[in-house]
Every structure is written in C-alpha cells, then in structure tokens.
Design brief:
Blueprint (H helix, E strand, L loop, with lengths): L34 H8 L5 E5 L5 H14 L8 E5 L2 H13 L6 E4 H16 L6 E2 L4 H10 L6 H16 L7 H7 L8 H18 L1 E2 L1 H14 L1 H10 L2 E4 L7 H11 L5 E5 L14 H4 L1 H4 L4 E5 L1 E2 L4 H12 L4 H4 L5 E2 L8 E7 H17 L7 E5 L5 H10 L4 E4 L8 H16 L12 H9 L14 H22 L5 H15 L7 E5 L8 E6 L15 H15 L2 E12 L35 E3 L27 H6 L11 H18 L9 H10 L4 H5 L6 H15 L12
Parallel strand pairs: 1-7, 1-8, 2-3, 2-6, 4-5, 6-7, 9-10, 11-16, 11-17, 12-14, 12-15, 13-14, 15-16
Helix pairs in contact: 1-2, 4-9, 5-8, 9-10, 9-11, 14-22, 16-17, 18-21, 19-20, 24-25
Length: 737
C-alpha cells in the first residue's frame, strides 16, 4: 500500500450554491415503502436509531433514506459515509444507491474507509509513506511465538492470531490481556500469560519492520484524529452524515472511530438488531445499539417488524424462540409480523442416530428438488464445521449436488489430509512402527496415530481452530470404530483404502447445489428451504457455552438460523451418535415449549405449529409425535435402553417373536449384505429384525412404525420384508440400489 498522492478523496465541502435543486420526482423514491420504512427514509435530521428485525427490509429502508435525501437536495452525495461490516454488504449498498440515483455516496466497510483516510493523511500527520500493510499476520505471529519459545501448530497459530485481533479491537494492550480474558469469561486457546507474551512480541516485530496490520489501520486512524484536530476537522467537513449498518456488531474500537468522525454532531443513523448479535467472540457488542437512546436522548427510534422474507409459520417459531430469551438483548427483542401468505409448518424430526438424521435430511432435500425447489435455494445449517462430513456423504449418496460455505470439504481439510498421511505411513510400516506396539485393535491403532496429530480422549476447552481440528480427528476415530465393527479383522491398510474411496466419492465437481454451512457463516443469507440439524444439548447450546450470556448468544444463533428460511423449515436432532448406540441425547432446550409434546416452565408455549416426526417415518400414517417415555408393552416399565425401545419391551420380558420368521429374515439379510457389499447391520440390526418378527407387519405403514426402519430402508427393502412376513419368498429387489 502507498500513500495517496492526490486530494480528490477529500474535496472541499460545497457551499449552498453548489447543491442541486431538489429533483421534482424525489417523492418517487418513497414509493413502495411501508409506513415504518417511509419513516426511516424521511427522518433526515438528528440521530436516528432503526431497530430492524430479520427480513424486514433494513437495507431497502436505509438506501432509500440516503437516496431520498440526495434526490431532495437535503444531502450532498459526497458528504455521506455509509459503513457496514463486509465488502459484500458494502457492494450491495453501492449498487442499490446507484439504481436510486445516488451513486456518489461512499459505502464502505470500517476498515476500507479508515484505510483511505490513513493513506491520505499519513504524509501530513506523520511524514513519509504509510507503513506496509500485512495482508496476513499469521507468519509474524508464528515468529513471535518462536521468539517466546512457544511452539504452536497451524491451528493453534490461527487461534492465537484471533486472540490478538480480539485484544486489539477491544483496545486491550498485551500486559492487560490475561485480566481482560478473565473479565470477559473468555476461553483462551493457550495460557493467557503466554498469549500476552506472544502478543507483545508480535507488536515489537511489527514496529521493528515498519509494518501494520488491519487492526492498526483503525487504531492509527483513531490516534491521528485524536492528536491532530486540524485533520479531524477536515474529515468532519467532508463527511457530515453517517449511516452504520449492522450496528449490533460494532466493536469498542470501531465505536471510538465513529465518535471521532462525528465530533460534536449528531447526524447519525444506525441500524441493527440486538437479537442477531452472534459475533461477541470477535469483540462485537450490542451495547452501543442498546445504549443509543441513552447517549442520544432526542433520537428518532423506528422499529421495523414487518417480515417480508418468511412465512407466518417460520416467523411464529422465531418469535417463540426470543420469547424465552433472557438478558438485556432479550429486553429489546422485536416481535416480527409476517407479510407473506401462509406456508407449511416447521417440521420437527427426531432420529435414532446421526447417519439416520443425515439420510433423512438428504431424502427430504431430494423430494424438495423433485417438487421444483432449486438446489441453490436449499441450505443445511449446523453448529460447527466438523458436522458437515456426514451430510456431505448423505447428499453424495442421494445424488444431490452440494457446496460448502465457510469450510473445506471434510477430506480436503488440512488436519484430515495430515491424518491420512500419518495413517498411510503407519499402515506401510506395520509392525515396525513402535507407535503401534501397545495397540491391540484397529481403533486403538488409529487413536495412537492420531494422538500425534492433536487427538485426545477429551475435547479441548473453548472454541476455534483447535476445537475444529479435534472434531475432525474425532470423526476419523469414530469412523475407524464403525469400520472395525463392520469388518472384524480389518487392518490399518484396509481403513486407509476405505478413506481413499470415501474421499473420491465425496469429491463432487463444483456445481450450483445445496449449501452446507455453519450457522455463523449463514448470517446475512436466506434460502427457500432451510434444514437446521444436530439440534441436541451439547451442540446447541455448544458445551463450552457456560455463562448465561454465552447460552443466550447460542439461542440468538438458532434464531438467526430459523430466520434464514423463507418457506420450508426443518429442525432435527439424533438421540445417538451411531446406529445401535445408546439413546442418551435430547433435543435442545431452546425448542422446549415450542415443539409439540414439550413444555417450558414459566415460558410462553407456541401453539398451532408443526409436529414431531419420527425420523424415517413413511408418508401416509407413519408420523407420530413423542408422547412421553416409551414403556414396555409387556410389563409397562419405562424403557431407556435403545435396544429395548426398538423392541418396545424389556429384554427380560417374554417375547412372542416368530422364531422361524426371524431366521428367514436373517438369511435374507445375509444375502442382501453380500449383494450390497456391506455388513449385515447396515441392512437391519438384529434388534430391528427381532422387532419385525414380533410385530409381523402386513403393510408399509405397520413396517414403518418399527424403530430402525427408515424411509430409505422402507423403499429399498420393504417389499421383500413384507413378502417374507406373509410367508412368501422375497422379490428380486431393486438392482439400482
């Protein structure tokens, strides 16, 4: 980056004669706005605070506000600075303003606006050229860590870099970092004192080499405006009117810069929604939005609550989520009112295990696409990126194109590639690898190898790259465990071959497909159909959300996910991780009182919406809500074991199973497994076969009611099973399967 060499960035403020006369069609800019949006567009004087709920047209309101002011001759385009948080949002704002005849308005991110000012004024304020801007600070952080004799792997390096960024935007100096972390109840990826040392050395290295980073752009601009009143006055003469979008995400440093831009003036319009504050880990805080009326007692406050994005059914659930919220942000929640025609109710689905949840989700998506919903208008949203792998596999198996947002494909992740190299090396070495000396079986061999790459028996505390890396490695450990159960006697070489095959199968070409994304990366986007998956305690809220405020931010994250949906919304969870596992999980507390069959003490219960569907239920009679604990059909005792629930009786209670039918089913299952090249349990588990032999179903609906018989297996094997139950021979089956 070099200093600006011309003055056109900051032309002299125009006099009255330089303003154009108000165009005769200025009022046309207001056409099509609802009453509240029109109120925003015409409030051009003094401080204005727009509280805008999800889908209420906030960008439309503020761009029409600026355009109306310009077209009416009240605002000079070059005197307006509109700031937001992403280049995409700034570009969208500029495009809309051009269409409305206000193309001369500056719409930028905080960093972009500050960098232009810093480049222009640095020669005058400091002298010489602006120091070189670091595009990526990771390498310098790595060097700082090495000088502090701290060894960081690549993921730890990313986390420590994030901590340094958080410290700088919260205006925390290195010496104060440990105390600031404790005060914020923040989980540091390393010892806070250690990170403070690395932070201090990083700053020293930057000074020695004459470089600055992106946070310095804001800090240095703040410093110049505080020290040089002449420069501050020049900027204030240039920019006389400010608009700030996504104001709930402003950091203390950005607020300080905004205050210096404003000076003692109050020509400021802010737009935000405290209920969408989900980036506190980066230093964002809704306090500035919530305190706006305290700082500006004469502010005009407009609430946008007409939701043009989502159906009444989706909006009803979104409102219900916030109705149970607590804390300061919750006190300022907005009750949305849908402006769309009614649509389908949200679907709540409980699955037996995670693979069943992924398969059920993929099937629903395939049905939506067949019904005419474009794949690009469908999204699967999850809490952490490590959850993507099972959905990548399920969509690939279903022949549904997909694209990942905000993360690499599972087998393209650095830690997964590194793990593959390590496993391949161990497989080649065989008995010559001392690392495997004490490993008795395949899973223990994999655990031993991956322990050198960061896997541990317990997950690391906190979030970030270290946690994501661990989740990826843990997924490989679980895959090895499942593989060993399916293929007793399999070697490490067999597992490596399996990983290679899976990686090849999931490497789909880049196409316009279903979006797979984390909830955080979905902010600001919307789709016709949204699937919110993995909604279990421990994942939503995430396990490391300990404080009340952290839990409430998790609730807001789910709210953001819900409000991404325009028409179709599906929410699901799995009772166990893997097939046959103990059903010890439960749905997220945030849905208590909102999904049928649940209650939230002391909270409003949302009515008239959706229903709980057992995962894999067949159409036309297989849907059923959970009616409380499962009970033994023989003795009436409450059932807790997943296998007992499948049989609907205690294991010790007498069985009325048709033994001959059970044996015929086992023989048929063995033939199917050989034909498909899969272990027998992938067709049906023993408990499922026992349940079938006890129930002796005669119709698709009766078969679908048996736990373990999902929609996919009903389609694939249903005809054969019903034929066997009727005393007939199985059909040839569907060869395409």
């Amino acid at each position: 980056m070099t200093a600006a060499t011309h003055s056109t960035l900051f032309p002299q403020a125009p006099g009255p004669s330089q303003f154009l006369a108000a165009p005769p069609d200025a009022d046309a800019v207001l056409d099509g706005l609802d009453p509240e949006q029109r109120e925003v567009a015409t409030a051009l004087h003094g401080p204005v605070c727009v509280l805008a709920g999800a889908g209420t047209g906030k960008t439309r309101a503020i761009t029409h506000r600026i355009a109306y002011g310009v077209r009416a001759g009240i605002l000079q385009p070059s005197s307006v600075l509109a700031v937001t948080f992403t280049n995409r949002a700034a570009g969208e704002m500029r495009g809309r303003l051009r269409q409305l005849g206000a193309g001369g308005v500056q719409a930028r991110t905080f960093h972009s606006a500050a960098l232009r000012q810093l480049q222009y004024f640095w020669p005058k304020a400091v002298g010489g050229e602006l120091p070189r801007l670091l595009e990526r600070k990771v390498q310098l952080v790595a060097e700082a860590a090495a000088r502090c004799r701290v060894r960081l792997d690549r993921n730890e390096l990313r986390d420590v870099t994030g901590e340094i960024e958080w410290a700088k935007v919260t205006q925390t100096v290195p010496a104060d970092y440990p105390a600031a972390v404790a005060k914020a109840c923040r989980e540091a990826p390393r010892d806070p004192a250690e990170i403070g040392q690395i932070y201090s050395m990083y700053e020293q290295l930057k000074r020695d080499r004459g470089t600055i980073d992106f946070e310095d752009v804001l800090l240095l601009t703040v410093g110049i405006l505080q020290d040089r009143h002449d420069i501050a006055d020049q900027i204030r003469r240039q920019y006389q009117h400010f608009v700030v979008d996504e104001y709930q995400d402003v950091s203390p440093l950005q607020q300080r810069l905004l205050d210096l831009w404003l000076g003692d003036r109050d020509s400021l319009c802010v737009v935000g929604d405290a209920s969408q504050t989900i980036y506190s880990f980066t230093g964002a805080t809704p306090d500035h939005l919530l305190n706006f009326r305290t700082r500006h007692p004469n502010a005009t406050v407009v609430k946008l609550v007409r939701d043009y994005r989502s159906t009444p059914q989706v909006v009803h659930l979104a409102n219900g989520l916030l109705a149970q919220a607590r804390g300061r942000a919750a006190e300022h929640r907005l009750e949305l009112i849908s402006q769309r025609d009614p649509g389908p109710e949200p679907v709540y689905t409980e699955y037996a295990d995670e693979p069943a949840e992924a398969e059920g989700t993929a099937r629903r998506i395939r049905d939506l696409i067949a019904a005419g919903v474009p794949a690009g208008e469908i999204a699967v949203l999850y809490r952490i990126n490590a959850q993507s792998e099972v959905y990548e596999q399920a969509l690939a198996d279903a022949g549904v194109p997909y694209q990942l947002r905000g993360a690499e494909r599972f087998f393209e992740r650095a830690e997964v590639r590194e793990a593959g190299v390590a496993l391949r090396g161990a497989a080649r070495a065989g008995g010559n690898d001392s690392l495997l000396d004490d490993a008795e079986d395949l899973p223990s061999q994999v655990r031993a190898v991956l322990s050198t790459k960061g896997w541990t028996t317990e997950p690391p505390a906190g979030s970030g790259a270290v946690r994501d890396r661990w989740e990826s490695l843990a997924a490989l450990v679980r895959l090895a465990e499942d593989f060993a159960r399916a293929r007793p006697g399999a070697t490490l070489g067999d597992l490596v071959a399996e990983l290679d095959e899976r990686a090849a199968a999931q490497h789909a070409p880049t196409v316009q497909g279903v979006t797979l994304a984390s909830l955080h990366s979905a902010k600001g986007l919307e789709w016709d159909a949204v699937f919110l998956v993995g909604l279990t305690e421990g994942m939503m809220p995430i396990t490391y959300a300990k404080t009340d405020e952290q839990v409430e931010e998790e609730r807001r994250l789910l709210y953001v996910g819900v409000t991404r949906a325009r028409l179709h919304l599906s929410l699901s969870w799995a009772l166990a991780r893997s097939p046959g596992g103990r059903a010890s999980r439960r749905a997220t507390r945030f849905l208590a009182g909102l999904r049928p069959g649940s209650a939230a003490p002391g909270a409003r219960t949302a009515g008239g919406g959706g229903g709980v569907e057992r995962g894999g239920a067949a159409a036309g009679g297989a849907r059923r809500g959970r009616r409380g604990p499962a009970r033994c059909r023989v003795c009436g005792a409450t059932l807790t074991d997943a296998g007992d629930v499948k049989l609907m009786r205690c294991e010790d209670c007498p069985s009325d199973m048709d033994e001959a039918l059970y044996e015929r089913l086992r023989e048929w299952r063995s033939d199917q497994a050989k034909r498909l090249g899969q272990p027998p349990y992938c067709v049906f588990t023993d408990k499922t076969l026992m349940a079938i032999a006890e129930a002796v179903p005669a119709t698709d609906g009766e078969l679908a009611r048996i736990s373990g018989v999902g929609v996919r297996k009903l389609d694939r094997f249903g005809a054969d099973v019903l034929a066997i139950c009727a005393g007939q021979g199985p059909g040839e089956g569907d060869e395409e399967d």
